[in-house]
TrEMBL record:
Keywords: Disulfide bond, Signal. The keyword Signal applies. It comes from Takifugu rubripes (Japanese pufferfish). Gene3D superfamilies: Trypsin-like serine proteases. GO terms for molecular function: serine-type endopeptidase activity. Pfam families: Trypsin. This is Anionic trypsin-2-like. Residues 27-245 form the Peptidase S1 domain. One of its GO terms (biological process) is proteolysis. InterPro entries: Peptidase_S1_PA, Peptidase_S1_PA_chymotrypsin, Peptidase_S1A, Trypsin_dom, TRYPSIN_HIS. Residues 1-18 form the signal peptide.
Length: 248
C-alpha cells in the first residue's frame, strides 16, 4: 500500500518473526482509499507503467505536483483518475511551470494539459480564510512503496489500490535541498504511525476539501525514521494562481 507504512511489530507481544515474508504480513500500510475519495489524484508513470510520482488536478487544465518529479531525460506520462480506475492518459505540455522565489526555486511545479478535461478536480485553498496550523489533521494518498524488510528498510513495491492516510501537523519551517539550491516552505508531520515513501512525492495534501500541500519529502529509506515534509501551498498561492492565469 502506498508509501503509507504502518508497521506492527508483533515482537512486542512475544511473537517471533522468523522470515521476511512473516514480517511483511504484519505490516499495516494506511488504508485503501474508498471509491469516492481522490478522484483528482494523478499518477505519473515511467514506461512501461511503473509509478514515479503523484499529483493533483487543480482545474480542468492544470496539475500540481513536486518539481523534483520532473526529469527532462526520462519520459513520463500522466494518468488521470487512476482511482478507482481504470484511469486514462492525458497529454501535457513538456514545459513544466516552476515557481521562483528570488534566487531559489521551491519544490513545486505546475503541468498544463494539452486539452481541458472533465475529470473531477480539487480546488486550491482559500488561504485568506484558513491556513494550515499545528494540530490540523491532513490526508495524503499515493501509490508508493508500502513494505519493509526485517531491518525496517522500505522495499520497492506498488499497491494495486490507491492508499490514504491521515497525519497531524506538527510544525512549519523552511526545508532545504542543499545540493540544488531548492528551498521550500513546508509543514511537517510525524511518521510514527504512517510513513510516505518516495513514490508518493508530488501527491496532494488534502484538508477541508482543498489542496493545502504537496508531498515533497517522503521520509527516509528506513520506515518511521524521520518526519515527512509537505510544501505549504498557501505560501505559494499567488505564484500558482498567476501561472494559471497567464497560460490559458
Amino acid at each position: 500500500m502506498a508509501a503509507l507504512t504502518n508497521v506492527l511489530f508483533l515482537l512486542s507481544f512475544g511473537l517471533t518473526v522468523t522470515t521476511e515474508v512473516d514480517l511483511q504480513k504484519r505490516i499495516i500500510a494506511g488504508r485503501d482509499c474508498n471509491d469516492q475519495e481522490r478522484p483528482y489524484h494523478v499518477k505519473f508513470e515511467h514506461p512501461p507503467g511503473s509509478n514515479r510520482c503523484g499529483g493533483s488536478l487543480i482545474s480542468d487544465r492544470w496539475i500540481l505536483t513536486a518539481a523534483h518529479c520532473w526529469n527532462d531525460s526520462i519520459p513520463m506520462k500522466a494518468i488521470l483518475s487512476p482511482h478507482p480506475g481504470p484511469g486514462h492518459e492525458a497529454l501535457f505540455f513538456r514545459s513544466p511551470r516552476f515557481l521562483n522565489e528570488g534566487s531559489r526555486r521551491p519544490d513545486i511545479m505546475l503541468l498544463e494539459l494539452e486539452q481541458t478535461t472533465t475529470t473531477p478536480f480539487i480546488p486550491l485553498p482559500d488561504c485568506e480564510k484558513r491556513r494550515i496550523q499545528p494540530g490540523d489533521v491532513v490526508q495524503i494518498a499515493g501509490y508508493g512503496s508500502n513494505q519493509v524488510d526485517r531491518d525496517n528498510k522500505k522495499i520497492p513495491s506498488e499497491p494495486q489500490v490507491l492508499q490514504c492516510a491521515d497525519f497531524t501537523v506538527e510544525n512549519r519551517e523552511t526545508f532545504m535541498y542543499i545540493t540544488n539550491n531548492i528551498a521550500t516552505e513546508v509543514f511537517r508531520v510525524n511518521t510514527d504511525q504512517a510513513d510516505p515513501s518516495p513514490g508518493d512525492s508530488g501527491g496532494g495534501v488534502e484538508f477541508d476539501n482543498a489542496i493545502y500541500g504537496v508531498i515533497i519529502e517522503a521520509g527516509h529509506t528506513t520506515a518511521h525514521a524521520t518526519k515527512a515534509a509537505f510544501a505549504d501551498v498557501c505560501h505559494y498561492i499567488d505564484s500558482i494562481k498567476q501561472i494559471m492565469a497567464l497560460h490559458v
